[in-house]
Structures are given as C-alpha cells and as structure tokens.
Amino acid sequence: MPVILKIAAALLAYLIGSIATSVWVGKIFYGIDIREHGSGNAGATNTFRVLGKKAGIPVLIIDILKGFAAVSLIRLTDYYVPGTSAYYNSALFLGAMAILGHIFPVYVGFRGGKGVATLFGVVLAVHPPAALLTVAIFLTMLFVSKYVSLSSMVAGLSFPFLLLVIFKTTSTTLVIFGIVVSVLLLFTHQQNIERLIKREESKANIRLRRRRRQTMDIDLDLD
C-alpha cells in the first residue's frame, strides 16, 4: 500500500475512534459532561452508570462499531490477503489508531474512555470467533461476580489464550496483539483493581423480570 494511502487510512481510523459518543450523548440529550460524573471516564460503562440503559446501549454499540469500522478500512484496498501477516499487521495498526482515538479523542480535548468497547470492535473485525468467545467469558464472569471491570479484564486476559490454545493461531502479530491487549486492559483498569482489592468497586445490579407473556427480560443497572 502506498505510504500516502497508509497515512490517510491511519488518520481516518483515528478520527473514527475519536467520535466521542458518550460525551456527545450526555451533552446533547442530558445537558451534562459524562466525564464529570461517575468514574469520570467517557465510555459505555460510565454512561450506563450515570445516564442509564437508554443512553448506554447506543453508546456501547457505536463504540464497538468504531473499532470494527476502523479495521474494515483495510477492505477498501486490494493490497492485502486476509489471514496473512501483512493483513493482520495493517488491520491491527488501524484498530490501534481507533483505540488511540477513543482514549485521546481530538474532538473533545483528548479526554476519552478506556477503549474496551472499541477494542472489542477491533477484535470482532480481526478474529470474530475469538471475539464471540470472549463475550461469553465476559457475560459468565459478569453474572458470577457482578463486576464489569473484573469481567472485562478476565475476558481480555483470555483472548491470547484462546488464540493459541483453541484456535491455534500461527500469526505472531495476532498473538502479540492479544498479549498487548491483556496488558493494556490491566493498565487502564489500575484504579478498578485497587477498588476491587479494597472491595469498593461498584457492582452491576442484574435482575431477571418475568413479563406477562412469560418472556424473560434482563435488567442491567450499573451502580
């Protein structure tokens, strides 16, 4: 791929990642800056905590799509063959630029979130089966522990294990990416780890309500 095209794709991936979903939703529809409430992070989890499900669900979906869209930019060219090292190198680079944009968004003063949802979008685009398994691990941990932060870290730590053991990935780049993801999640969740140790971390209140038509509805409120 020509250098100019690489630079353009990287810049566009960063700008896509910089879309400050939670900040804009909070300011436009609720008149608040989400970064001044709750945990102070401009991410989906804090949006659920402060603004509730009606705001949290759209923010979560869009943040995931940011990572997926950034990686998908590679499909605009015919320079890479899916599954090759060159393909993974470029795809993960674009994903990293989107995550960087989410954490340091240019549109709102470079104060963003932790990038977990956007990171999941990247993983979903690069390796869908592993991504879906990490979701299953996340949900299992969430129902068992009620901690969103702990569930996110466990799911992230499982990713390189899934690549090596379950899917027997031969791409060194992808494996290194998985390990970096695990380390990054631990780094960005330092405060959560401290609160977990002190037993001060907020729990997710998960309730099952039975409706009249005998259907089950999961009500997830983040304290």
How are the elements arranged and paired?
Blueprint: H1 3-17, H2 21-30, H3 44-51, H4 53-72, H5 85-103, H6 116-126, H7 128-145, H8 148-166, H9 172-188, H10 190-197, E1 204-210, E2 216-222
Strand order of the largest sheet: 1-2
What integer value in Å does the Rg equal? Answer: 18 Å
Helical residues, percent: 55-70%
- Label the overall shape: globular
The largest pleated sheet is described as: 2 strands, antiparallel
Total domain units: 1
Uncertain stretches: 210-223
N-to-C span: 47 Å
Can you count the helices?
10
The count of β-strands is 2
* Overall average residue pLDDT: 86
- Roughly what fraction of the amino acids lie in strands? 5-15%
The helix-strand sequence is HHHHHHHHHHEE
SS-derived structural category? mainly alpha
Give the key terms:
globular; single chain; 10 helices; mainly alpha; two-stranded antiparallel sheet
Describe the structure.
The protein has helices at residues 3-17, 21-30, 44-51, 53-72, 85-103, 116-126, 128-145, 148-166, 172-188, 190-197; strands spanning 204-210, 216-222. It is mostly helical and 223 residues long. It has one domain. Strands 1-2 form a two-stranded antiparallel ribbon. β1 and β2 form a beta hairpin. It is globular. The relative contact order is 0.12.
